[in-house]
Amino acid sequence: MNKPKASWLPHLGFIAVYVLWGVNLTSMKIGGREWDPILFNGLRYACIVPILWAYTVVYQRSKKQSFRMAPKDLLWIILLSLASTVGMEVVLSYALQYSSTSNGAVLGRGFMPIVTAIIALILMEIRLTWRMAAGIPLAFVGVVIIVSGKGLHFGADTLRGDVLLLMRSFIGAFYLIYMNRLVAKYPLPLLITLEMTFGALWLLPYVLFNINGAYLGSISPAGWWSLAYTSILATLAAFTLHNWSLGKLGPFKSSVYGYLLPVTAAVAGVLILKEQITLAEYLGGAAVLIAMYLVQADRMQQAKRMTAPRPEEGV
Predict the structure, then answer these.
(1) What's the chain look like in SS3?
(2) Range of 159's domain?
(3) pTM for this prediction
(4) Where are the transmembrane segments (predicted)?
């Protein structure tokens, strides 16, 4: 009786993740006025690694599970941490210096489900249905509508940043597909802890070279609150929930939830920064939500069929 409800949990998990990340965009707008973007990312990973290790040690011992990992899988974690911290976070920071946040929403986030779907189809990990074929383009159009009045522009002046944003979409698709495989083999706390630890190590040289007391003393309380929110909620909580839901839904259906980010970011901007939502944003948001329903309907119907009583059981 509880299985239908349980089938909703990873979907609700992704909604919560993109609410946290939508608010985080507003938080990083505030913190970005003061923090160097790479230093900010390096500090946020470094701050949560001790917490993660403390929790993981307790969890692994309580479950009597080993910390051992196959060398090949450990190498994958190292590569995925590089993809996550440098390939996605740092690349995004640099890309937005040469392009706009609107281009980032379309190219950096909007193309990721499309790329993931193509790779998953080639690897025969998903089967294309009419809902997916209709939902993905609809969601992409919805994102374009949302950001159409906020500086969406493609040209020679944005080419360098746009190429980086597209590269980020491919890296994100790679991350989703291969992290999904590890989530099925190892405890989630161990994977998250190792990913964040290696992520912190990738950025550590830059942090050590650039950090000093004078710089930290110049950061306002709002800047520190931004770092705290991004570290604890947008990274520690959201990444844990993200990868748990990823293990339940798979890389393609997980990637589609990325289209929610412009919607949750717009709502956060209204509530926190008192921004106004335009008619285009309402229409684009509606298109995204309809697309979410179409793409995820297949899995929900499969779950219902699996939990429905068979004819012979009712006799």
Answers:
(1) CCHHHHHHHHHHHHHHHHHHHHHHHHHHHHHCCCCCHHHHHHHHHHHHHHHHHHHHHHHHHHCCCCCCCCHHHHHHHHHHHHHHHHHHHHHHHHHHHHCCHHHHHHHHHHCHHHHHHHHHHHCCCCCCCHHHHHHHHHHHHHHHHHHCCCCCCCCHHHHHHHHHHHHHHHHHHHHHHHHHHHHCCCCHHHHHHHHHHHHHHHHHHHHHHHCCHHHHHCCCHHHHHHHHHHHHHHHHHHHHHHHHHHHHHCHHHHHHHHHHHHHHHHHHHHHHHCCCCCHHHHHHHHHHHHHHHHHHHHHHHHHHHHHCCCHHHHC
(2) 17-307
(3) 0.71
(4) 12-31, 43-62, 74-94, 106-123, 130-147, 159-178, 190-211, 223-244, 256-273, 279-296
